[in-house]
Amino acid sequence: CVFTDAATHLIADVNGYFPAGSSFVPLVPGRLLETRVGAGSTVDGLFWQLGARGAGSTTELVVAGRGGVPDDAVAVVLNLTVTGPSAGGYLTVFPCGSAQPTASSLNFVAGQTVPNAVIAKVGVGGKVCVFTDAATHLIADVNGYF
Questions:
Q1: Residue 65 in this model has a pLDDT that exceeds 80
Q2: Which is nearest to 45 in space by CA: 66, 22, 60?
Q3: Which whole number is the average pLDDT over 56-73?
Q4: What is the DSSP string of 11-56?
Q5: Fewest beta carbons less than 10 Å away: which of 18, 30, 132, 138?
Q6: Backbone CA torsion sign across 18, 24, 26, 30
Q7: pTM to 2 decimals?
Q8: Rounded to a whole number, what is the largest CA-CA distance in the chain?
Q9: 5 vs 17, 42, 84, 113, CA distance in Å?
Q10: Sign for the pseudo-dihedral over CA of 77, 83, 115, 30
Q11: How far is 89 from 45, CA to CA, in rounded Å?
Q12: What confidence tens digit (pLDDT) does each residue in 88-122 have?
């Protein structure tokens, strides 16, 4: 099912699948991060209304033990959204406690709202890190785990 709260055209692209017997466990989507003040809460009220993330900042997001993700998950599937960036830039998602890679996970332009699906290894403390090189609001919904 696809829900929209306003009339719009929809496009759905399939990027792949996980075969039966894989270690992927799908979840009902759950919000784990919402930095906008006044926006709906996260599944547990944590990582909510943090304000825009600053340029050059890294947000450490606890994913283990939240939204149906068990404490021993090794990776999570996230839908990561940027909204209201002050300038064009990129996000990089990586396991906390590891060196930040040079690859981007999501690219955006000033003022844009854009999502991207990301599979991220869970790092130290059950966290994934989100680096942004331009000030922006972040939203993260979990869709599954390994």
A1: yes
A2: 66
A3: 98
A4: ---------TTSS-EEEEEEEEEE-STTSPP-TTS-SBS--PBPTT
A5: 18
A6: negative
A7: 0.89
A8: 43
A9: 27, 19, 19, 16
A10: positive
A11: 28
A12: 999 999 999 999 999 999 999 999 999 999 999 99
Distances in Å between the Cα of 29 and the Cα atoms of 3, 34, 101 are 12, 14, 27
pLDDT digits (tens, 9 = 90+) for 121-144: 999 999 999 999 999 999 999 999
CA 128 vs. chain centroid, Å, equals 9
Q: Are 138 and 130 in contact (CB under 8 A)?
A: yes
Q: What is the CA radius of gyration of the chain?
A: 15
Burial 117-128 (b: 16+ CB within 10 A, else e): ebebebbeebbb
Q: What are phi and psi of 126, to 5 degrees?
A: 70, 30
Amino acid identity of 87? A
